Amino acid sequence: MLDYGVIDTHVHLWDTVPPFDKRPNPFGVHGTPKEFLEACGSVKVDKIVHMEFGRGVDTFMPEIELMEKLAEEHPKLVAMVAWAPLSKGKNAAYDLDEIKKHSIVKGIRQAHFSDPDGMAYVKDDMIDGVRLLKQYGYGFVLGTSFNQNGGVIRFLDKIGEDIPLILDHMGKPPVQQKLFDVWAKDIEKMAQNKQLTMKISSIATEAADPNWTKEDIAPYIRHSIDVFGWDRVIYASDWPVSTRNSNPERQMATLLDILSDATPEQLHKLFVDNAAKYYNL
Rounded to two decimals, what is the model's pTM? Predict the structure, then answer.
């Protein structure tokens, strides 16, 4: 394992039944930084960035307030990426004004996992909403899946290079379908937008089978880093979603094994430097 603490840029936190969600959490009653750090085992984490749970117009502010409360109790929770109704276009400014009052928020995500082709990102109002983020100093995180790559590529062409962007989980590659070549070409197109950073996260979730091997996922990690370069990749665990077929220690050990030829400086960029710069930590 690494001998220094990492910045984990994608951790889903909660506590009891949050005020922003009346449904039981499938991962248990508590998911505070305390539970997360215990689950990390030998993986040292210095800073935690909470990732929104995909909430809606009535729930994103209570989620922000809950994270502020947790951050007071757990100093390693230093930032969050919030949900915002960017599909309202320019009318999202009111909501962003309110979000900006909360310094814990360092970026915005609006995932469209149920969108069959990613074209929700290309709608004019969505583009206008994302463009608003520049004046608030926020970057935008895309929560997408492989089937949405066509829409994501069109979004990147339309949005340009004025706003820092992150692609979650290597775009959820089609590990099970064994469509590496198709995914790889899409990733190469995405990487042409120099404002896009690739998140090396949840590295086994798309393998689905708990008996996944290093060989199953190594090509996707290698290609992501080869295409984006060491200055445009950041690490994350995607806890607790990734615990469906892995754990933070297994993920970290596998990742370090795959990247055994990387220099200490390169690894420090992946695990610390790039995230600190992106989120201004």
Answer: 0.95
Tokens read off for 86? 């960017």
CA distances from 80 to 47, 87, 158 (A): 11, 20, 26
Each residue's pLDDT, cut to its tens digit, for the chain (281 residues) gives: 899 999 999 999 998 766 666 666 778 888 999 999 999 999 999 999 999 986 778 889 999 999 999 999 999 999 999 999 999 999 999 999 999 999 999 999 988 877 888 899 999 999 999 999 999 999 999 999 899 999 999 999 999 999 999 999 999 998 877 789 999 999 999 999 999 999 999 778 888 778 888 999 999 999 999 999 999 999 999 999 999 888 999 999 999 999 999 999 999 999 999 999 999 99
- Tell me the C-alpha distance between 56 and 110, whole Å: 10
